[in-house]
Amino acid sequence: MTKPSLHLAVLASLLPSLSLATIAHATDGYFQNGLGAKAKGQAGAAIADPQDSLSIGANPAAAAALGYRFDIGADVFVPDRSAAISGNGAGLDGRSSGNGLNPFVMPEFGIVRPLPGGLALGLAVYGNGGMNTVYKQNPFAAFGATGHAGVDLKQVFVAPTLAVEVAPGQSLGVSPLGLLQSFKAAGLQPFAVASADPARFTNRGTDWSTGAGVRVGYLGRFGRVSLGAFYQSEVLATGFHRYEGLFAERGGFDVPASWGAGLAVRASEALTVAVDVKRIAYSSVRSIGTPLAPLLAGRPFGAADGPGFGWRDISVVKLGLRYAVNPSLTLRAGYGYAQNPVRPSQTLLNILAPGVVTHHVTAGATWTTASGTEITGFVMHAPRNTAKGRGSIPVSYGGGEADIALAETALGVSVGWKL
Fold first, then answer.
1. Where does the record locate the signal sequence feature (predicted)?
2. Domain range spanning residue 99?
């Protein structure tokens, strides 16, 4: 078997395992902070600075600039999530840890191949987001909840990609997106009475959903400066039928649209500085963006206009530095900032999904062996951020406030080959 054929066989064999991997990244809301170990070492900045085949997940136009290569990697991710309720007249007061399940391992891989006429084909398979909480001490026990409480959301994308160099150094790309996602919820029994379908609200096991969307991108290189941009449509997904009584629109859970731009400057022969700016439209998906308020107006969970998690749209900024020490060693560092999508009034439901970290710092390196194999590692830390509730628990649920907190640490490694 030739080396390219072997790499394709490995990719195909790992696809089922990736679809079952638990994804808990939540650095940009519930999206990952980056794709590929090289990008993750510089805070995810990759829209204008593609370095491996996973970069086509950030900007499909990158396929025309990467040459023929194959990359495969895996992350180990350790989130630290917790909640505290105070001033509640119904007995909910107390602190709870959502760390009943840790750590998480997530693989990703991709391949890019140039074709005649300035064309390039690529395929990337990656987890774009997710959230997991397991509260072994159920924070809603005083309401009559039993067993552990929590949710588990997994999202995996398959992105076949076509790019074309339309002029020297200028490329356009498109990735039709396939989505496979799963969800389960447990320990939420007391809230089922406020559902349009109480039998399909909690403790229904794992349900699966599929969806489709598209991502388009541009990449332009102008001497020492590169510019990039992308737009990803809302990914329309089939509903979670086992949870039609929980999510708005009878189990609807589409993936929000996002868009962004990047700038990369080769400041010297050794140093490259990359900056990305991105916007994620969480509020456009009703099950994510609708606040709790409709429930108090008589509209139940699961209804078309029913309550959701109340997430707002966020902006994300990433700064990455890459320094080539010599032909064999490249060092990276980065800093990212993302707005907190959870409003102070919406922290009660978000005990289940506390995607509230706002800052993260990263470091990474690539060692290229004498045979040309690229071995890349990275580490990321997002310091704890606490989102304090303000008017977060309705009087009908005893009033008071729910505070939620999240910190994250991740490390990963990848191996890449120029074919």
1. 1-26
2. 3-418
108 within 8 A of 125, measured Cβ to Cβ: yes
| 261-277 pLDDT, tens digit each | 999 999 999 999 999 99
Across the strands, what pairs with 359?
337
* Coil/strand/helix, residue 53: helix
pLDDT digits (tens, 9 = 90+) for 207-225: 999 999 999 999 999 999 9
**Mean pLDDT of the region 28-43:** 93
Alpha helices in 150-285 (DSSP H): 248-251
Contact 124, 20 (CB under 8 A): no
| Global pTM exceeds 0.90 | yes
Residue 253 carries which DSSP code?
Answer: -
* Element holding 318 (H helix, E strand): strand 314-326
| Number of domains forming the structure of the chain | 1
Q: Which two tokens stand for residue 2?
A: 């030739």
CB 29 within 8 A of CB 282: yes
Residue of 128, 142, 151, 138 lying closest to 287 (CA atoms): 151
| pLDDT classification of 20: cutoffs 50, 70, 90 | very low
**CA angle (409 as vertex; 403, 411 as ends), nearest 5:** 160
| Pair of tokens at residue 167 | 């002029």
Quickly tell me which residue has 């489709």 as its tokens. Answer: 212
What are the structure tokens assigned to 129, written together?
């987001």
Amino acid 132: pLDDT: 87
Residue 129 sits in a domain whose CATH number is 2.40.160.60
